[in-house]
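The data layer described in this paper is built around a simple, fixed record for each protein. We quote a single record here, exactly as it is kept in our systems:
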Amino acid sequence: MATDAPALRSIEDATARLLSPGSPFELAEEVVLGETMAVYKNRAHSLRELLEGSAAHGDKDYIVFSDGRRWSFARHLADVASVATAFRERYDIQKGDHVAILAANAPEWILSYWATISLGAVVISMNGWWAGDEIRYGLDLSQPKLLLADRRRIERLAEMEGEVGIPVVSFEDDFESLRTFAPSATLPTDPIDEDDPCLLLFTSGTTGRPKGALVSHRTLVAFTMSSFFIGARRAMTEPPAGEAGATLAPFPLFHLSGSMGSTTATLAGGATTVWPMGRFDPAKIIELSLKEDITSWNGATTHMFRLIDHPDLEKLDLRRFSSVGVGGSATTPELLRAVAERFPHLEGSVGSGYGSSETGGLVSYANNAMLRSAANCVGPPLPTVQIKIVDEEGLELPAEGIGRVCARSPLIMLEYLNNPEANAESFLPGRWVDTGDLGRISGGMLHIESRLRDMIIRGGENIYPAEIENRIELHPDVAEVAVHGVDDREMGQRVKAVIVPNQGATPTEASIRDFCAEHLAYFKVPEFIEIRREALPRNATGKVMKHVLEGAGENAFVEE
């Protein structure tokens, strides 16, 4: 688009200036886990360094929760030191130990996160929406030494098979004694290496079972630096818009957007984040925005549509907003249009990052011009990140060739915990990681063509059909099943199951949903169920052709 060319040139100029010698984002080459790659030269070397640096922000609010509780940076630092001391002295948490957190968003989650990391221990970030079987699997995989949970999840532990087998700390009943355990304590001083693990993020794979992406202090520091780089470049290439108030933090803390973005990067930047509790309610968010002077909204596509479409939006002075952004899901053309309509001064400012737990949260970033140029454009790679497109044999393809998107950077995960098969499948020589996406590079920009693993993104939550299919196949009335996503304006996608019953069986939609809900989190339970009598369309190798079920193609395979 010719009208966007000056903006794109200014981005190139800004990038060169920000990466120049002597700048905060200056690059250097170093060996990372045996591979030479670019790194940010002027960086912290552990998350504890970032935490210590937060003392400079003093009495400014760091986290504010919708139930009225708030922590300044100074109070947060003191409470983290107390909790860390209690972890060590009460539960013998040492460097390298695993501490699991299973809870809804709450201040105790954030205090536990920083306390664990300051000890050099590893946060096991368990999905708060999991059912009993999923919780059991997460505990068995990660083998934590301590479990911190809220009452609702503690009740859910009863659904699991077997005992928990480790101490369980209730946020509501036990945590206050940890927060006040050692009021004058200081942070631990045990040495932490950049490549020490600090966080386990659960993702999913083609088998349908969650996998644990283990990331390091280096990963989160690099994520934070890249986030700052994006902000600095935007400041140099886009006109100022609105005032700098607080930032909305609607993401679950067990997601990378919550733990790495809204918790870690904001602490390092001295920002105030406001956390709504309970179900996402746009009316309450708007009231919270008025009360806490929120001028930056960030969330999944579904969050943004619910806010933008709500009639109470007129209560806000929208001209004061400095940004409206999307994370955890794709930025759609319709959302760009809706933001421009409601926030005219922000037209042209909405961008979107691309990444995953395995790639440390950030691979590339597309500004508004890039998003408008092509809906599947996710921008050029960020500093320190290399990308390449490979074929099925792992050979790099030339520009415009469509293949598997691979990335390498200091942000890449250490490994999938206790999963050598998945590591062998995902890692290429040289610590390149296969993202599982199909894409191409055009003009230096990465374009995502499709997701190889048929992932469904519902309201920013990643859902893999295989896990749901594996459950439904156990239903006594089901002969075949295929699960895929259905496009939805608000949620991005919703889950649909296509079922072929056993001969003579008459399963109902309600019975299928109830069967799923017994072992799957609610967001994985199919909202749409199609019961058909004809066999599912399959190719010559026996795989279900989901594009046919979705209406995106015809079944050209003829059985003989």
Residues 219 and 411 are 4 Å apart (CA to CA).
